[in-house]
Known about the structure:
homotetramer, mainly alpha, Arc Repressor Mutant, subunit A, 2 domains, two-stranded antiparallel sheet, 6% strand, DNA-binding
Amino acid sequence: MDFIDYLDSRPIYQQIADRYRQLILTGVMLPDEQLPSVRKLAMELSTNPNTVQKAYAALEREGYVYSVKGRGNFVRANETLKSKQKEEMKGKMIDLIKEIQAVGLNSQELFAEAMEEAAEDDRD
Amino acid sequence: MDFIDYLDSRPIYQQIADRYRQLILTGVMLPDEQLPSVRKLAMELSTNPNTVQKAYAALEREGYVYSVKGRGNFVRANETLKSKQKEEMKGKMIDLIKEIQAVGLNSQELFAEAMEEAAEDDRD
Amino acid sequence: MDFIDYLDSRPIYQQIADRYRQLILTGVMLPDEQLPSVRKLAMELSTNPNTVQKAYAALEREGYVYSVKGRGNFVRANETLKSKQKEEMKGKMIDLIKEIQAVGLNSQELFAEAMEEAAEDDRD
Amino acid sequence: MDFIDYLDSRPIYQQIADRYRQLILTGVMLPDEQLPSVRKLAMELSTNPNTVQKAYAALEREGYVYSVKGRGNFVRANETLKSKQKEEMKGKMIDLIKEIQAVGLNSQELFAEAMEEAAEDDRD
DNA sequence: GTGGTCTAGACCACA
DNA sequence: GTGGTCTAGACCACA
């Protein structure tokens, strides 16, 4: 249950936020479902409540979650999250394409090869 | 000549390394060509020599550059750099594709849209 | 009948107090009319009786309500409530005007625009 | 020089952020001007560096400031800040107008009175 | 020296 | 019990 990777270069609070962002966007967590309490999650991950707090604050700021004092943090039912997410992914893709082109590689070809290899990984 | 962007989130030594990595891979700098001296580049960029040093050290570690004590830093003539670079880019692309698919988006479609937008940005 | 909005950033006890303050000031609730009992309202709102209690205590402290032990809470017939309320609102308006002017904006113009947009919101 | 007000209901990190937001928007602090370092400001305000850090992080997130590792925090030259600020003020005004109307007061009249009183305060 | 992250632990508001 | 703020202090990356 401990999904923190200390070898990961992302700070811990980021890893937590990324994790829950994903759970919400993939529909594993449903609107109004409660996230684990700050303290409980901190215990589970053997990390500090402040660190979890920082992750949850980011999620709230970004609109993934709403927090009710004395109650907990809950998944927000936000129709626009999906499209926001898509824009984010597109942004990353554009950056990568530019990086590829900047070094003189063919982004179309490289994408095709990457797709194949990604599919192979899945079959493993 | 000052290519450092303080609004960029990457640390300065990274921006310098990224810059020269690119100059080398795109063939703007040729094998055995000399890089600017640490002090000179530090002056030009009004930054700390330590910072330039750190960038050059990274380039040497990665095999882009070789350093000759008392003489300077020079571009390495390494045929394999290109393919190594390509594998790196493909790796990034595969990661991104997986991330996109993990949230249930269509990577093919998103790539196509990103290509268009990247082209538009270029025309600006 | 449940007017609590968990997405609202105000704490629940505040939302309850605000609600009844409004009902009283707008004349929907008349002098000596009885408020719902703490327990009943707590049930209706599926919230904690302590929370309702805290809201009622605030209303009593502010003079909107009087409580009779063993009987309940009742709207106070206070002629001065209206003008007190007006002074409060005016105070808020003055603070906001000063804030607007402090950053060099035209408060008159901004008020006019806000009035229009507020009216639009109503028509939705 | 200590602008923190412990009687203020806003948390300390908010007061700090509000303060610098204002300094930037009113042009007291100019683009690329450096903010006091986290540690120095913490000393000056006899507060904790973490608290200042939290304020600066908020300012960066909102686009008022950019941070350079190992260098410091600097005012961002953002043309759009002004209009963003205006929207924020308008939002506050709209909320207040609705609140006023909700209790059956005349917002136009109340605004006029508030303007007068605000002007009087200035003459003091 | 400068920013950023994290821990340990306290204390408050709220439900 | 639940979230939010804050302090004291450590440690790391970067310039």
